[in-house]
Amino acid sequence: MVPLSWYLILSAGLFSIGLFGVLTRRNAVAILLGVELMLNSVNVNLAAFWRYGDVTQMAGQVFAIIVFAVAAAEVAVGLALVISVYRKRNTVIADDIDLMKW
Amino acid sequence: MTTETLIWLIPLPPILAFFLIVLFTNKSKALSHTIGVGAAALSWLASMVVFFRAIGVEHLGEHPFESSLNWLPTGDTFLKIGVLIDPVGAAVLFFVSITIFMIFLYSVGYHNFGQPKGDHDVAGLPPHGATVEEHGRKHVVPSIEPMYSRFFAFLGLFAFGMYTLVVSDNLLTLFVGWEIMGLCSYLLIGFWYGKPSARNAAIKAFMTTRVGDVFMLLGIAFLYWATGTLSFREIFTEETLHILGTTMTPIFGLSAAGLIALLLFIGTVGKSAQWPLHVWLPDAMEGPTPVSAMIHAATMVSAGVYAVIRMFPLLTTDFNGHELTTAMSVVAFIGAFTALFAATIAVAQNDIKRVLAYSTISQLGFMIAALGIGAYVAAVFHLITHAFFKALLFLGSGSVIHGMEHGVLHTGNHETDPQNMFNMGGLRNKMPITFWTFLIGGFALSGFPILTAGFWSKDEILADAFGHGHMAVFITLAVAAFMTAFYTMRQITLTFLGEPRTKEAEHAQETPWTMTAPLVVLAFFAVTYGWVGIPEHFPLFGGLVPNWFHEFVGGTLAEHPEALEFNVVPLLTSLFVALGGLFFGWLAYRNVQTPAEDKFQIPVLKNKWYFDEAYDFLFVKPAYWFSETFVSAWMDKGVIDGILHTFGKVTQFLGDIIRNYFDLPVINRFFGDGTADATQWVGRNLRPIQTGRVQQYFMLALVIFIVVGAALYYLLLA
Amino acid sequence: MTAEQIVFLIVALVTLGSAFMVVTTRNLIHAALWLVATLFGVAVVYALLNAGFLAVVQVVVYIGAIAILFIFAVMLTRKDARDSGPQTHKNWWVGALLAVASYLGLSALVLGWSGSSKAAAGLPSGFDAVGQLGEALTSPNAYVLPFEVASVLLLAALVGAVYVAFNRK
Prior knowledge:
CATH architecture of the largest domain in chain C: Up-down Bundle
Shape of chain C: globular
Number of strands of chain A: 0
Structural class of chain A: mainly alpha
Radius of gyration of chain C: 20 Å
Largest interface: A-C, 73 and 93 residues
Helix content of chain A: over 70%
Distance between the termini of chain C: 63 Å
Order of helices and strands of chain C: HHHHHH
Oligomer: heterotrimer
Helix content of chain C: over 70%
Distance between the termini of chain A: 56 Å
CATH topology of the largest domain in chain C: Four Helix Bundle (Hemerythrin (Met), subunit A)
CATH architecture of chain A: Orthogonal Bundle
Largest sheet of chain A: none
Number of domains of chain C: 2
Number of helices of chain A: 3
Shape of chain A: elongated
Number of helices of chain C: 6
CATH topology of chain A: Helix Hairpins
CATH class of chain A: Mainly Alpha
Largest sheet of chain C: none
């Protein structure tokens, strides 16, 4: 039998890898890829807690589905932004998009 | 209507007239004078009814007409106001109502009603005359007074004050009427306020009488404190008078009654222009002549004497009939002194109205002296006869001036003073009615024997003084009476007799009927009123007519005064002073043409014994010095401003210290600039982390999150 | 070690390995393909957890829609998505440290928690997970409101994406 901690540690690993991607990749699309990894780790968590808790309470799964919807929305808007920035500034390098500096 | 109700109503018509004229009818001259004269007539009518009902009552003194009502609650008791007509009140009401009515009527003519508007008359100055074209010729006629309506309004207010004073049954409303008259006196003397002399005279009159009024108010306050009432009938009971008479005060060893009487008497000194507060009355002649007649001869100055008459029981508390009390001595002295003193000045005056003014002061002195020696009935008698003949003389002088102004307008020479007697002469032919009435008035003033009222009243005062052994008063008054006759004859001679001394006098004209009719009426009383008071034991005439006046007025007092034994000395004295004075007056002045020929133009008399100069030096100049130099320059600008400037300097010094040693270094440099510098330094050093790079922000946020989270975890949970 | 544990470990290793490749590979197309592999791994994990519906949605939505969307985006921004040159900025070690720190921190929390070692209870007999989930999503007593809000969010994202990326010319 697989204990709960295994799933949680898998989730933590997935999350940390996603975080690493978000923090270090220069390309904005790649950053979004990292974000997807982090979202998936959350979903793994939600599903695991559902399965190891009271299975008749569907909250875990319901929230996982809502995370799917949020992820879909996030990707749609995020990629639209990337494309829009790319059109205007001809770049998708996050470090070059620094208009908010002093 | 009961008599009491009627008495309440007597003062009302004039005050209503005042408000009607001021508020509604002041645009219409005819309507205004109709209302004014009508109101005076109504009050006169009511007064006559009251008077005749009063003389029909037996023992009116014990049972006067009286009515009072609660007015002001003062703790447990009420301050009452009310009306009272006792014999004195009735007698005074009689002459007051007649003279007021006559003077209202006279004013219509005096202010040239019916004449055209002046060419260049302005409000506040006497009318200068109007040019009219008649039969192709231009000539100048008198013009109507610009403030005609206002004059009648003021007269109405004044009449209200006088009636209030006469019918009052208490000192409070008496004082109210007294002050209303004081105000009206100020307004009417300053009626032609465009003239600086009139303005100054108004202020002088107001200020001088104010001195007296303050003391009078003190007296009223003292009386109220001592007795708890101001009603005459309640004060003049035997117990109250006894208490007041036996209470001693620390001032000059006077009893409370004496002190109160003297304080009230000072009010009279101001109002009746007795020495030393006489200075305002001659200057008050700046006002229109009806004003001089009404206020300054017949009514207001009489009010002063009337107040003393009212307070007579208080004045004579402890009077045993022979030895004068201190208070009475003071009153007698002031009266007698004033009588002589004013008579000497009158001799040297050239202004027709000023002579009469000093004559008024002198005659009021007679009355005061009479009251001072306890001659109650004689004083009231002289008060009434004097009111008639002095009003007559004033109105006559107004008529003369009016006639002279006519002459001035005719010749166009405005240099000629229409009031200077040396510009007159021979007016008897030009103005016959004025002449004869003036002659009657003058003879009454002089005390021309038997015929005139003045003789009987003055004789009674002299007889009283002689009969009770007050020889000093007797001699002083006799000399004053002689001088009275002398200056009166001088006046008549200079004005009416001889030949005209100027062109203006040649063209003088008789005045309209509204002015002469009052003269005739007053002349009638100036002659006949004396006959009601002929002493019973007088040779030839005594007993022909009962001495009604003595009986009637004497009944006012609780203790009826005894009729005097006849004595031939005062009779001969008054015969001599009257006839002698008149004769010498005629003798001395029948040929005098210019002031230079007048032997009595002695500087000290001409300048009124330098009283104006003395007062100017003693009071006016010090007052100016006190206000301008002492208060303004020294106290205010020196001390007060000095203190304030010192405060200012000290404050500025402190301010400098705080600014230079605290504000600038600590607040500005340290807190102000220091905070800014620190903020700038922090900002400058924090600026590099604002890279605008999202990932760096995120990293920083995570670093802080992890550090803080770990710290919290180990601090709180582990 | 049971067969289930072995299966789990294999799936987990594949998932983590492919995830690692997603964030480290230089070629973004490859990265997107590695993401597909990772998502498959996660779908298997769902299946292991008896969440069949989630596993199916994972495959359909993530792999079928989102991953494809990424590939399109990479191709549309082809100019910068060069395969040569570093794909990380010069501060990558800070990110690495932070990632390791967060992994260690999370692991420590998990292992320190007593409830983490418990085993899953068996499913009740005849338990219909998909039916239960459907009812929970549509029942007014449960999660219909968040569900509808999620639909509104999707609509807003749809409109917003079109608006932001629309080429105004």
